[in-house]
Design brief:
about 70 residues; mainly beta; three-stranded antiparallel sheet; two-stranded antiparallel ribbon; about 40% strand
Length: about 70
Amino acid sequence: MELKCKNCGSEEFITRPNQYDIYKFVDGKLVFQNSEVTNNEVELFCRECSERIDFASCDLIGKKHG
């Protein structure tokens, strides 16, 4: 299966940011504490036009989320 954006034809997609880093101010410096995931659901958007892409999760190959 080949997936392209229906809006602009792009073949590159990005995910919605679903993670944030927590820092704490210690002795005058920002110190990394940990990262937290806000949503385990993967959402894809066209990298060119930001259109939301509908896809089956079984079509994902590569980096695992969650």
